[in-house]
């Protein structure tokens, strides 16, 4: 009977984890009949979440079946709702509601994260998001429906709740999108609302002047220092009592790790991520490894922890895939390290900011930054071609550092 590696989730960590695991088996000359790698996800596609703020979000998915077939990874359609580390099984629910149990010898959990949705009155009923393709498509459809309504200030106003990375990118993309919807002469308003006192609080001081310049250039407003406490069909109310009339409210209030993380470990950080060992192993479940948004792990020797970002998920996935396969074969695992860190923030028609290092030293702005963002969003974060040699090479964690 073959041994089994299960990978739960087809986000950035899961896809590159599958490539990493397949590469180890290939290098060791292990046949797929002896060790079977299976990727489990609701759809055989990678949703390009970093692009969900753009127009035509329905196009932001990369098919995975040809790639998985090229490297000998099986695919199972469904959502995992239960993991038993004692029995070493996962419960998979298919789209039609059918359930089945799959056994594993090693498990790589890469189930990602979801938009945090606190119990703010009206959030579930009236707010949109760009968390998934389905959410972004609903927002697009909503914009199209607004064209049938009389032109009013509220109809032409969008309120974005959240002044972090996602909120900034959504806000700066909207002026052009709203002109496309309502016409070039329409008087539109885009308002970013945040409880923090500064825009982009986690981005640091260096990019902030450029963000402010882009906001001013694009006419984006920032209402800071008071969070949203209620949402309805006609706008939002903040804790300070301010009322903003808006027919469109977009929630961008941060992320939380998949709840599956709590099924493999009791040691979770405030974001719900597993406190993983340096090789991404779960200390409480020795046959389980984690990668991507469900893992809290150091990236370097200077005390920096991985963020919920595709750049960390992709590389972490390679290490996680390598380690589940290596551990199964009795080979040494690798310590996850990713010392290089960069940030690229899209700022709509103004351009973009590209910075390097955890202190975010700005390297490129405006058109040059935009070109770097375009390369990241359309080239670098997409899976490799369905060519076995190219795909296996893409799964090498050590090649990341040249």
Automatic annotation (TrEMBL):
Q: Which UniProt keywords apply?
A: FAD, Flavoprotein, Oxidoreductase
Question: What cofactor does its activity depend on?
Answer: FAD
Gene3D superfamilies, A to Z:
3.50.50.100
- Residue span(s) of domain FAD/NAD(P)-binding: 4-317
* Pfam families referenced in this protein's UniProt entry, alphabetically: Pyr_redox_2
Coiled-coil portions: none
- What InterPro entries does its record include? FAD/NAD-bd_sf, FAD/NAD-binding_dom, NADH-Q_oxidoreductase
- Sequence similarity: Belongs to the NADH dehydrogenase family.
Provide the protein name. FAD-dependent oxidoreductase
Organism of provenance: Paraburkholderia bengalensis
């Amino acid at each position: 009977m073959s041994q089994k590696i299960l990978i739960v989730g087809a986000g950035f960590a899961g896809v590159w984890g599958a490539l990493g695991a397949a590469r180890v088996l290939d290098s060791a000359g292990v046949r797929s009949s002896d060790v079977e790698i299976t990727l489990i996800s609701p759809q055989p596609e990678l949703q390009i979440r970093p692009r969900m703020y753009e127009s035509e979000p329905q196009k932001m998915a990369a098919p995975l079946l040809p790639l998985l077939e090229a490297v000998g990874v099986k695919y199972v359609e469904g959502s995992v709702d239960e993991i038993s580390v004692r029995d070493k099984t996962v419960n998979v629910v298919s789209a039609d509601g059918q359930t089945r149990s799959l056994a594993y010898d090693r498990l790589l959990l890469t189930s990602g994260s979801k938009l945090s949705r606190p119990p703010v009155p009206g959030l579930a009923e009236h707010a949109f998001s760009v968390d998934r393709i389905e959410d972004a498509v609903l927002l697009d459809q909503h914009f199209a429906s607004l064209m049938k309504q009389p032109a009013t200030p509220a109809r032409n106003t969008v309120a974005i709740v959240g002044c972090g990375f996602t909120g900034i990118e959504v806000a700066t993309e909207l002026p052009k999108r709203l002109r496309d919807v309502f016409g070039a002469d329409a008087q539109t308003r885009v308002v970013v609302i945040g409880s923090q006192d500064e825009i982009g609080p986690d981005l640091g001081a260096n990019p902030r002047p450029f963000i402010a310049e882009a906001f001013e250039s694009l006419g984006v407003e920032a209402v800071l220092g008071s969070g949203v406490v209620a949402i309805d069909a006609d706008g939002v109310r903040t804790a300070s009592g301010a009322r903003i009339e808006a027919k469109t409210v977009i929630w961008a209030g941060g992320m939380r790790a998949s709840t599956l993380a709590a099924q493999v470990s009791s040691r979770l950080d405030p974001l719900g991520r597993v406190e993983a060992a340096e090789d991404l192993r779960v200390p409480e479940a020795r046959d389980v490894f984690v990668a991507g948004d469900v893992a809290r792990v150091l990236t370097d020797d200077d005390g920096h922890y991985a963020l919920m970002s595709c750049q960390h998920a992709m590389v972490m996935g390679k290490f996680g895939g390598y380690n589940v396969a290596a551990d199964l074969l009795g080979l040494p695992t690798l310590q996850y390290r990713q010392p290089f860190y960069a940030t690229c923030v899209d700022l709509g028609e103004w351009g973009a900011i590209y910075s390097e290092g955890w202190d975010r030293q700005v390297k490129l702005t405006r058109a040059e930054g935009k070109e770097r963002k375009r390369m990241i969003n359309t080239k670098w974060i997409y899976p490799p071609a369905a060519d076995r040699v190219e795909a296996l090479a893409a799964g090498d964690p050590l090649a990341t550092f040249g």
